[in-house]
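Schema walkthrough. Field components (list of strings):
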Amino acid sequence: MGEYEPVLLANVGVAGSHTRAVYESRGGYEGLRRALCDMSPADVTERVKASGLRGRGGAGFPTGLKWTFLDKKATPVYFCLNADESEPGTFNNRILMEEDPHQVLEGLILSCYATGARTAYYYMRYEYPLAWERTRAAIDECYAAGLLGSNLLGTGYALDVVLHRGAAAYICGEETGLIESLEGKRAWPRIKPPFPAIEGAFRKPTVVNNVETVSCVRQIIDRGVDWFRSLGVPPDPKNPRDAGSFGPKLYCLSGHVERPGCYEGPLGLTVRELIDRFGGGVWKGRRGKAAIPGGISMGLLREDEFDCPLDFNGPGRYGCLGLGTAAVVVMDETVSIVDVLHNSCRFFAHESCGQCTPCREGTAWAYKILQRIRAGHGRLLDIELLRGIGDTIGIMPGTTICGLADGAAWPIKNAIAKFRDEIETHIKTTNPGHYGATRPVPERHSAH
Amino acid sequence: MSQPSDRILTDAMIAEIRDYFPRYPTRQAVTLPALHVVNRYLRHVPRRAVVEIAELLELAPAQVEDTLTFYAFFPQERPHGKTRAWVCRSISCHLRGAEELMDHLCRQAKVQPGGTTSDGRLTLEHAECLGACEHAPCVLAGDQLLKTVTADDADRFLRSLR
Ligand SMILES: Cc1cc2nc3c(=O)[nH]c(=O)nc-3n(C[C@H](O)[C@H](O)[C@H](O)COP(=O)(O)O)c2cc1C
Ligand code: SF4
Ligand code: FES
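Field assembly_structure (string):
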């Protein structure tokens, strides 16, 4: 790969990058001005479709295609910008909103224009106060400049952007959880179908897209389809259903690396390239032991799997759930997998919305079992119990409404498949007298 | 409606909440914004406020209560401290010492996670991933993000509280 020149992050580090003046001095809103004058909404949609852009929020659904599912006869259409970014390890939306809020808004306006939305709800997680302030200021600047409001740039197109603040709940990132939360209800994901494009916010056709996705839309309108498709990984010729992995990607790198950060490259960089070239290697001169490929929901890679490419197909080939958010969390050789799994199980037990019994109970039990193992009261039988939970909760086994449960299951499944020896050794050495017990341990042993 | 004098929501709060009405097609959608408004003023959302919000939004109090309790974000019984500090405990921060950091903060501030110091200056809470993993371990203290927090940084932060 030759030198890659960042585009999504091009303005990061430039003084005043969050202001409209600096954004426009660097070519900002030119694409929007041209598109509003020269392109119909259908043209914009066609271009996004042709680019092969797939959603960056985790599911990887083709963006242009999603837009065409909108029920054209029903109005109004709502656009929800998903800025709830809460997948552990992920922070690229935050960087975009803090450092380049106008890029996000330009992408959002273009996406709304394409889909015919006249109101956009910008749903931002609570924990991003700086992104909130800068986005609020950027929206005000847009209204003042006629880039938002009742008559955009004199074209007659009207668009309002409403900033909506979350209240610290991971499940609000799931698109129908987001919609319920926006409506003022508890964020219980909806059973699909109907998909939001048919019946979404306030029972109207709705598009939900991620912050990085709409930022890519802005780049596609600026730089064109050919540029976008020149980056990344083309579809697998042996798989007729693969839509390819085109375009730039923001990779979040954290954990045990020398230089954690958000780095941009084409889709398809390997975990090892990220760690070595961008991250300065595993920290303290240590060896890597494991990595999360795309946010904690995606599961675990072993060190000998670090050549896994981060495109929409890569992590799946290594037994992980998928690309997710391409947030890579690196663990060095000193890390205990039991400890990592304990952390992951606690997260999902805490964040399950409680609507589906397999998820509510499964995540809670998995966490209890991990507490037990971590505290030195584990039994070999616990590994089978965990596997039973991992195999039975989620959309894939068909027992839950949303994908949170699949995300909870994957680290469990991967840990057992890839690090079973270590877990067994931990159980045997910390609980030498009782690890073989086949009956539940007395209640006082569970830490909760 | 109760007498204005024993209302909890002030005119300023009510005006702020009403400002949200035109932005949404339903009144119920103003629930979260309203809870945020009240919590910003009162640092908690007591039951009485829930009833008054419900009245404004033309909802049953139970609907507002239902949403409020879902998030575990708005305290109801007593106000949170003047500064609310969220200590991230998710994976990237955990790998870089979040647990030790929380222990240290608890010891120095003499509170348990979830607790408020006796002088009411600080509420210390666990957070799941704050979306700032490149700065692990991190703490969100009010609107301030504390990055790669060492024990010294933590002590300095505690001293800075007013
Ligand atoms: C449990 C769960 C949490 C999610 N959290 C987020 C999130 O924080 N941000 C996001 O953009 N998408 C999140 N998603 C994916 C959304 O449901 C949805 O696919 C996405 O916002 C669509 O936008 P995109 O096509 O632009 O990626 C989550 C999904 C699940 C199942
Ligand atoms: S799978 Fe879990 S998080 Fe998703 S709707 Fe069901 S209970 Fe809620
Ligand atoms: S894990 Fe702590 S900020 Fe992400």
